Amino acid sequence: MRKKIIAGNWKMNKTPSEAVALINELKPLVKNDDVDVVFCVPDIDIIPAVEACKGTNIAIGAENLYFEESGAYTGEISPNMLTDAGVKYVIIGHSERREYFAETDETVNKRTLAALAAGLKPIVCVGELKWERQCNITEEVIARQIKLDLWDVTAEQVKNVVIAYEPVWAIGTGLTATPDQAQEVCAFIRAQLAKKYDQATADAVTIQYGGSMNAGNAAELLAQPDIDGGLIGGASLKAADFNTIVQAAVEG
Ligand code: PGA
Which end of the chain has fewer CB atoms within 10 angstroms, the N or the C? Predict the structure, then answer.
């Protein structure tokens, strides 16, 4: 049985003091051992967030990293800076990074390898554009992303990778993939992993769905056999909604 992971992606929201206030509101609600709860927060919120989550089951994640260890890369943050601050997870290759900050499958792969080498769990985001789904090439797009983004990732390492299937047309749009659509692609991702590694390895990898997951639709999505959690944007900023999603994962 794979343990479900419910991760909030706060994106560019919450100042450090707002972050601590939200965590203090959420902490008593999401307390349980059956589901892993992660808050991926802006870099400036990391240190107060780690402090506020001490002694709880909540892990803190970053929203990105750079793949070099140190050096003249103004504005970037390294894997070791994150681990030293107590970060456990890092989102890599989110579609907003790909669209607005020119990230490619090649840099997503470099970041994934650097995160794994530092002992971080990368949450690697894949997903098709609306146009690609309309042209019926979703599987081709996903297969290519899995191949490129996980290039050189070993079978042992991939067990520490979380894959987030996030159809780009569903992110922040209120247009959720139906449970069947999401299950179909998550099962396809697992089949690609089985092809690349083996079935036992593929069965050990956590695959999340993300894209307008909310308090109303989470239970149905999380009940699907190949959906092992969620990456939640908008609904992770509201304590009650995020908690409803965590409880759906506990029950599902
Ligand atoms: P959303 O974002 O839940 O607001 O659609 C999901 C994500 O971008 O990870």
Answer: N
Residues with a catalytic annotation lie at: 94, 166
pTM of structure: 0.98
Token pair for residue 70?
């140190």
Ligand 1 site, residue 125, Cβ cutoff 6 A = no
44 CB contacts (<8 Å, ≥6 apart)?
15, 16
Report whether residue 9 contacts ligand 1, using a CB cutoff of 6 Å: yes
**Exposed, middle or buried: residue 194 (CB in 10 Å: 0-12, 13-18, 19+)?**
middle
Both structure tokens of 205: 């990898």
Per residue in 72-114, pLDDT (tens digit) is 999 999 999 999 999 999 999 999 999 999 999 999 999 999 9
**Cα gap 214→245, rounded to integer Å:** 7
